[in-house]
Design a protein that fits this description.
single chain; alpha+beta; 3-stranded antiparallel beta sheet; 10 helices; binds adenosine-5'-triphosphate; Prot_kinase_dom
Length: 370
């Protein structure tokens, strides 16, 4: 990401190449089917480009959020998508429209929906370990390209990793660069809204964010894809945060039934509290679990044997992905230092607040300024 395009604040980019169209979106596209997904400030709908008949996903982003003009945040999201144009595993940006209230990103349509659905699916529809290896390798290659381009995603979770097709299992597309940041220079991030289960300990501890922060999330993601369980999820947010900061992970046989020990070793190389000791995306690609295929077909969510029938291919009957109800549950207002060089990691300054007190740890205050 070239320095000249950086806004100088928050590791965000302020200029884009894409022409923003102000003519009518609905003249050129027809919305079809139900919503593909929804975030706090965006709705994503499937649409057809009238001129070509091609399917796309239109992400309608509100410019005003909580009474503030957030156009620059959307411009940054567009700039990051532009910078990842040649990245095969990042969703591609087709066109951009602007209305008085919204900016519409016309994106490549990922017909297979979120990998989340297969993570929580019944055992006969969930991923095999071989599937997970192939998909994790693609995530790693995609993320290695982003990191090589000094971009950190900061919101990698199963809802932001989509599939080009679900049956037969297609390729991954990383989406949602709304929280992503560039690391060209030492920059401060003052507000991060993330999803508790996937945030790294340094985010909770107000320590600097780096590419290693994404690697933690890939560790969590791999765990979920293999086991169908979220490793740090507690009964409430506070418990989840404690589990993360204590790296309280269950690697028992019970949870990892039918999963190879190499897979567990891979996850262990990522779920490490000290970001400097975590494996990088490039190191992960070279990990034997990812680089070699010594395992027979095993089914991680169940005790299914290697002789399991192959999945049937029904690409023409691709189901519409369900619209999940997303609600970002964590709001951390903090000041982070983002470093491109991990040896320069320095703690940031800021403030945080929890909605509820910690029942088991009253010494943890609900609000803290540091
Ligand atoms: N290109 C696409 N193809 C198909 N579905 C998509 C596409 N982009 C997004 N979606 C769906 O819409 C959902 C929301 O998209 P996205 O995460 O980009 O929005 P967001 O408002 O930034 O979300 P959040 O508030 O969770 O960060 C995704 O989780 C996915 O289910």
């Amino acid at each position: 990401m070239p320095d000249s395009r950086m806004s100088g604040k928050k590791g965000m980019v302020s200029s884009i190449r894409t022409r923003i169209r102000t003519d009518s979106f609905s003249t050129n596209y027809e919305i079809v089917g139900k919503e593909l997904g929804r975030g706090k400030f965006a709705v994503v709908k499937k649409c057809i480009e009238k001129a070509t008949g091609k399917e796309h996903a239109a992400k309608f982003l509100r410019k005003r959020r909580k009474g503030q003009d957030c156009r620059s945040d959307i411009i940054h999201e567009i700039a990051v998508l532009e910078s990842a144009e040649s990245n095969p595993f990042v969703v591609s940006l087709h066109e951009v429209y602007e209305t008085a209230a919204e900016i519409i990103l016309v994106l490549e349509y990922a017909a297979g929906g979120e990998i989340f659905h297969q993570c929580v699916a019944d055992s006969d529809e969930s991923f095999t370990e071989q599937d997970v290896i192939r998909l994790v390798r693609q995530i790693l290659v995609g993320v290695a390209c982003l990191h090589g381009n000094n971009v950190v995603h900061l919101d990698l979770k199963p809802q932001n990793v989509l599939l080009t097709c679900s049956q037969p299992l297609g390729d991954i597309r990383i989406v949602d660069f709304g929280l992503s940041r560039c690391m060209d220079d030492m920059t401060e991030v003052r507000e991060i809204i993330g999803t508790p289960e996937y945030v790294a300990p340094e985010v909770l501890n107000y320590e600097p964010i780096s590419t290693a922060t994404d690697m933690w999330s890939i560790g969590v993601l791999t765990y979920v894809m293999l086991t169908g369980e979220s490793p740090f999820l507690g009964d409430n947010k506070q418990e989840t945060f404690l589990n993360i900061s204590q790296v309280n992970v269950d690697y028992s046989q019970e949870v990892f039934e039918g999963v190879s020990s190499l897979a567990i070793d891979f996850i262990k190389s990522l779920l490490i509290k000290d970001p400097r000791r975590r494996a990088t995306a490039e190191e992960c690609v070279a990990h034997p679990w990812v680089s070699e295929h010594p395992h027979p077909q095993s089914h991680p969510h169940s005790t299914l044997l290697p002789t399991q029938e192959p999945k049937t291919n029904h690409p023409e009957s691709e189901p519409e992905p369900e619209s999940p109800a997303h609600s970002p549950e964590l709001v951390i207002v903090a000041s982070y230092t983002i470093c491109s060089n991990q040896s320069e990691l320095k703690p940031g300054r800021g403030a945080f607040a929890f909605d509820e007190p910690f029942p088991t740890h009253p010494e943890i205050t609900q609000k803290c300024v540091f």
